[in-house]
């Protein structure tokens, strides 16, 4: 596979999965040239079929990152850190391999960096208190990116994202399998954003995000994971998941699932709405879930 070298500054997406491709569609519709990192021929063909120029490279093998575009208008970095460790060598490798600094960087992080806030409403000034290794890697990545941004003089915008839902992203199989959820009275708060709104917010951040700022990207109407699963089940006409106590969940749920139950927070999204001028198409589950069902 050979690299695609765009003509002039381009939009470059690293981690061009579902959200990356949604952002790419918005950028292409605006008449911009879009390229994305691809680490396999299959990925390259998928990107090319969507009008996205594939650029070969594997973040886990920095020596392959030698064909990156020389002129970048916006670098969208959506790739996750590795599944282990306390840092994000993938992000560091990409930044080190860039032939020239981009005009700006938009980085997707996670709301997990705030840790457990015991159900409180929090804005972007809340302290970062990650409780999981996954969230600690994100904090390390944010710190590394901001330090690099300061040295290079490149505006960098950090987006702290909670659970994402949308067509093809609903927990359909889990509900069909009857996997239990925590009783509503004990369920912690969780936050969500529809995939289309997330993509639109990413593009808004690239255009008017404040350099060095972080933004909570959520629909502003947190509920609980239990409420979410019940609403999805109702929308699909499926039986609601069985309920268990939090104590029973702690005995039987996987560590990954438990990590979501041990944190409770409600994200304040006012900075996103006011500074990025984002108008949400789906400001709550009542409006967002029906839009997902056509592709289920």
From TrEMBL:
Transmembrane segments: none annotated. One of its GO terms (biological process) is potassium ion transport. GO terms for cellular component: cytoplasm. Pfam families: Epimerase, TrkA_N. Residues 11-69 form the RCK N-terminal domain. Gene3D superfamilies: NAD(P)-binding Rossmann-like Domain. Residues 93-217 form the NAD-dependent epimerase/dehydratase domain. SUPFAM superfamilies: NAD(P)-binding Rossmann-fold domains. One of its GO terms (molecular function) is aldehyde dehydrogenase (NAD+) activity. This is Nucleoside-diphosphate-sugar epimerase. It comes from Methylomagnum ishizawai. The lineage of its organism: Bacteria, Pseudomonadati, Pseudomonadota, Gammaproteobacteria, Methylococcales.
């Amino acid at each position: 596979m050979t690299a695609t070298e765009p003509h002039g500054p381009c939009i470059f997406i690293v981690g061009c999965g579902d959200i990356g491709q949604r952002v790419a569609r918005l950028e292409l519709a605006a008449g911009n040239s879009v390229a994305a990192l691809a680490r396999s021929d299959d990925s390259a063909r998928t990107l090319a079929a969507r009008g996205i120029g594939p650029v070969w490279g594997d973040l886990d093998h920095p020596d392959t990152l030698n064909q990156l575009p020389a002129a970048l208008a916006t670098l969208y970095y959506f790739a996750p850190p590795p599944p282990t460790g306390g840092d994000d060598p993938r992000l560091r490798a990409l930044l080190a391999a860039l032939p020239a600094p981009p005009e700006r960087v938009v980085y997707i992080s996670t709301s997990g960096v705030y840790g457990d806030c015991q159900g409180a409403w929090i804005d972007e000034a809340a302290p970062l208190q990650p409780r999981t290794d996954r969230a600690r890697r994100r904090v390390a990545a944010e710190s590394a990116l901001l330090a690099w941004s300061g040295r290079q003089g490149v505006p960098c915008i950090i987006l702290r994202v909670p659970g994402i839902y949308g067509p093809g992203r609903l927990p359909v199989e889990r509900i069909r399998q009857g996997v239990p959820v925590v009783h509503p009275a004990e369920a912690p708060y969780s936050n969500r954003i529809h995939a289309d709104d997330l993509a639109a917010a990413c593009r808004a951040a690239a255009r008017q995000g404040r350099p060095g700022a972080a933004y909570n990207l959520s629909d502003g109407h947190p509920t609980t994971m239990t409420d979410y699963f019940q609403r999805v089940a109702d929308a699909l006409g499926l039986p609601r998941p069985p309920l268990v106590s939090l104590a029973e969940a702690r005995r039987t749920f996987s560590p990954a699932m438990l990590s979501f139950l041990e944190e409770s927070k409600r994200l304040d999204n006012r900075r996103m709405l006011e500074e990025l001028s984002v108008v949400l198409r789906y400001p709550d589950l009542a409006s967002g879930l029906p839009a997902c069902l056509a592709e289920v």
